[in-house]
Amino acid sequence: MKKNKPKQIIGRRETVDFPELGLFGISAKIDTGAYTSTLHCRDIKVTEGNPKVLCFKVLGSPEKEICFKEFIQKNIKNSFGEVEKRYVIKTKIKIAGRAIKSIISLTDRGAMRYPVLIGRKLLKNKFIVDVSLNY
Fold first, then answer.
1. Rounded-to-integer distance, Cα 119 and Cα 48, Å
2. Residue 77 in contact with residue 83, Cβ under 8 Å?
3. Of 3, 75, 112, 116, which is most buried, counting CB atoms within 10 Å of its CB?
4. How far is CA 87 from CA 42, 55, 57, 79, 96, in A?
5. CA atoms within 13 A on the CB side of 63
6. How far apart are CA 114 and CA 107, in angstroms?
């Protein structure tokens, strides 16, 4: 039987790592109104062939291209309530000392203040959000 860990208290903003992507110390907004978590990236493209490969560039200096063989495309409602088709990957995210394998959607968040948005699907049964806290 799987033993549940106690829920951790986190703030409305947290620093997260994506170890499998080589991204560390990224500022993330905790958004209980969002269902899925999202990572800022650019130049999202799928190569033709068998198997198809999803490649995208992530923030960093310099930007680096990351490719995934396993991915899906889903309809996701954006912050304006409009439905977008987004690519979704499964990767590890480290938040508040916990490493969690999670589904992350990819989109250009260049106009947003935070490059990462953490949604309630990742938070569920793991964290309690105290909006008076940051990091």
1. 31
2. yes
3. 116
4. 12, 10, 13, 17, 26
5. 10
6. 12
CB of 97 within 8 A of CB of 30? no
Complete domains list, the chain, with CATH? 8-39+71-127 (2.40.70.10)
User: Who contacts 44 (Cβ-Cβ below 8 Å, separation ≥6)?
Assistant: 54, 55, 56, 87, 106, 108
Q: What pLDDT sits at residue 16?
A: 97
What is the pTM (predicted TM-score) of this model? 0.89
Residue type at position 93: I
Q: Strand 64-68 vs strand 53-58: parallel, antiparallel, or unpaired?
A: antiparallel
